[in-house]
Amino acid sequence: MRREHFTLDVSNVDWVDSDDEPRKPSVAIDFTGPATMLRERLTGPDGDVLEAGETDVALRLQEPLDDDAAGVVSVTNRITGEFILELNEEAADVLTFIRAARGYGEEAGDSDGRYEVEITIDGDPFVTYDKRTFLVYDDEGSLLRQHSLIPSGVEL
Predict the structure, then answer these.
(1) Which of 3, 56, 76, 101 is least enclosed by beta carbons within 10 angstroms?
(2) Is the pTM of this model over 0.70?
(3) SS3 16
(4) Is the dihedral of CA 44, 50, 53, 59 positive or negative?
(5) Domain residue spans in the chain?
(6) Exposed, middle or buried, 28 (CB in 10 Å: 0-12/13-18/19+)?
């Protein structure tokens, strides 16, 4: 699967820079490549689609963090550590999304997810995850806790 086969669209993040009511941020990832491979990666050994708790979402910076730093957004299988998908994104856009998720979580409380990820294949919904964690790593692979979305009480 190539990164070019994925497009990412975010919603409910504009309120971060205004005084609007917090809304749950959402990211839609559409895949237009060979569907069989993505379906297999999103499916566990039991044949069921992986649940939200079986996946991790992260941003790996490709260069030191500044205003125009690039990064790779990835969704991985938490059990095996294998990449499910990855795509290139501007780090500033992802960090704005994380700020929105953090702000929403402060309003919603710990019982609700902080953001939603919907993965579609050629525009058809395949799976939707309600997520609470979004990890950010620098270009050398170290966790950037101050930029990551880590719920209280979670140890890494």
Answers:
(1) 3
(2) yes
(3) helix
(4) positive
(5) 3-147
(6) middle
